[in-house]
Write a sequence for this structure.
């Protein structure tokens, strides 16, 4: 049995921070083949689960936790690209929020 290696991601330039070009489009079949591990508090994961369930039951949106997190990341990156030092992320990380 031959083990296949996963392809490694190419390194982007250090100053490159941009969301995918198709943010906000209705692309039906988008493939996500990159995995990453991040650590969250128990409260954050519970809140994510609650939001996911509310979107499913109250809004009738078929959504998973990964999709919610990708949307949040796209929003954060877009805000950063548009507002730089005045974006929500910088304000949050520097205590100005």
């Amino acid at each position: 049995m031959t083990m296949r290696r996963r392809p490694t991601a190419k390194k982007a330039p250090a100053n490159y921070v941009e969301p995918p070009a198709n943010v906000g489009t209705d692309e039906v079949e988008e493939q996500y083949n990159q995995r990453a591990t991040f650590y969250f508090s128990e409260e954050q994961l519970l809140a994510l689960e609650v939001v996911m369930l509310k979107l499913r039951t109250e809004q009738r949106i078929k959504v998973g936790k990964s999709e919610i997190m990708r949307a949040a990341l796209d929003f954060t990156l877009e805000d950063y690209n548009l507002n730089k030092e005045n974006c929500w992320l910088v304000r949050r990380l520097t205590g100005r929020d």
Observations:
- The chain is about 45% helix and 0% strand.
- Residues 64-97 form one domain.
